[in-house]
Write a structure and sequence with these properties.
It contains four helices and four strands; from the N terminus they run E-E-H-H-H-E-E-H. By secondary structure, it is of the alpha+beta class. The protein has one domain: Winged helix-like DNA-binding domain superfamily/Winged helix DNA-binding domain (Arc Repressor Mutant, subunit A, Orthogonal Bundle). The strands form two sheets. A two-stranded antiparallel sheet has the order 1-2. The protein has a two-stranded antiparallel sheet with strand order 3-4. Helix 2 packs across helix 3. The longest helix has 13 residues. It is globular. The chain starts with 7 loop residues before the first strand and ends with a helix.
Length: 108
Amino acid sequence: MSPFGASATKREALNGRPSRCALRYRAGVDERQILELLDRGSLAPEQIAENLRVDVAELRPMLDPMREWGLLEISGITQWGNDVSTARTHWRLTDAGRAQLEQLRSGD
């Protein structure tokens, strides 16, 4: 558990995929924080988690639903040499993610 208590709970929609309102965050990390970080450029989950001061295992369940909703996409996969175990995905905002972030910012 992180010092912020961040985690995600998913309820499955009828089709077995998380619905847009089914992802809930505990205090500390929310969709906007992830969008704000990725607005600066693509990052690996480990980098996002480090910036938010959460465990990467708590962050990962938040990324896939955001991708399914069209807010994020995988921008690439990197690995060190030929070692597949070092492969890391990098995530970035989509146009829909930028629009969502602007909507969240305008709500301030």
